[in-house]
Amino acid sequence: MSTIIYDARLIKTYEAFLGLCEYTNKEESFIEILWQGLIEDSELMKEFMYYLDNHALLDQIRFEGYGLTDLYFWKMREYNYYSDWGKNTEECNKESLVLETFYAMVDMKKNPEEYRKRLGTDEGMDRFR
Predict the structure, then answer these.
(1) Average pLDDT by stretches of 10, the chain with 129 residues
(2) Phi, psi at 24, each rounded to 5°
């Protein structure tokens, strides 16, 4: 008789992930792409699980010199730019920014050249695309 080891962490993580996506009104395509990216990247999944437990970014992984905290603040600057407030307001959904940060890391790993252009400091701080 063999022993079955059941690890419910991914199931609980998926449930929490779906709850965050519902709370932030993310589209189905966003949800599918982000979850697939998390499943395929164990380090990124570890970071996401840490976020769920602590509501803070562990920020241990780097890609192209950028960590999740870098991408979070980049996404926040982008939000401030497009909302034309010039600063972060109460209306800004921080949970949505976190999901978009993880999405950006997944996408950056697939399209590093695109993100080198978008995040490059040689073009000025107010250039987003």
Answers:
(1) 79 96 96 97 97 96 93 87 61 88 96 87 49
(2) -95, 5
**Upper half-sphere CA count for residue 111 (Cβ side, 13 Å):** 8
Question: Which among 94, 12, 8 is positioned nearest to 57, based on CA atoms?
Answer: 94
Yes or no: say if 43 and 61 are a contact pair by the CB < 8 Å rule.
Answer: yes
State the pTM of this model: 0.83
Specify the residue for token string 């800004």. Answer: 92
The pair of three-digit structure tokens given for residue 2, joined into one six-digit string = 């063999």
**Residue appearing with tokens 């990124």:** 44
Residue 63 bridge partners (DSSP): 66
Residue 88: CB partners within 8 Å, gap ≥ 6?
A: 76, 79, 80
